[in-house]
Predict the 3D structure of the following.
Amino acid sequence: MQPQVKWGNPMTVSSIAASSLRLQGAAGSPLPSLPAAATTIEISDVFHGFDGREVLRGLCVTLTQRRIGIVGANGSGKSTFARLLNGLLLPARGKVRIDGLDPARDLRAVRRKVGFVFQNPDTQIVLPTVEEDIAFGLKGHKSGAADRAAKVTEILDRFGLADLRQAPAHRLSGGQKQLLAIAGVLITAPDCIVFDEPTTLLDLRNARRVGQVIADLTQTAIVVTHDLPLLAGFDRVLVFDQGRIVADDEPGPALRAYVERMT
């Protein structure tokens, strides 16, 4: 059986609802209002594997908090689990529901609802300049050109990238690239963002900056990471081991359980 825990009052990050109009983003620009409710993710008896090796083994969990961390050893199944949440992978068996949507049937709707930030931002940067890459996320939107341009300018200002709008995207620093990748996801206005090890390739200064960006988000954030301090103030942490959730609690107890397993 997987561990069960009762959830009390949300922790620090979730308390931003009451004062969202006063919040400031990483570059000092105002943050948008919180969505009406956190995204609800339901995982029911999910199995998945690769090349005959079982990677996820009968996962059952419901996620409703705004800040959720996922930790575990390499190969424990955490990144595979993360990819189920916006349909990058579909389970071999079992059910995944995102606010009631089935990624197998409603993939486009799920992708609109759940954004994904990869560990290596180079895998997400697709156009030559910073401005073009961010604007790419609005391709196919029905808004007019002026509205799209205003949204791009707003997100550039929010992430401190305005002075780099015409810069070659692939020549940015590692930290700037990760901010660009996050901005490219945020401009599509998802309700939830999944981060797969967003600070692994960054130095301490840029890791802290990305951590602040995540803390400032009004959306649900699910963060896969080996950077344990990043999870301070989160609502909930899941610990993965050999394809199963072996601890599920607030950050303190969950991370202690994880460290004990690693020593």
Summary: Residues 37-262 form a domain with the Rossmann fold fold (CATH 3.40.50.300). The longest strand covers residues 53-63.
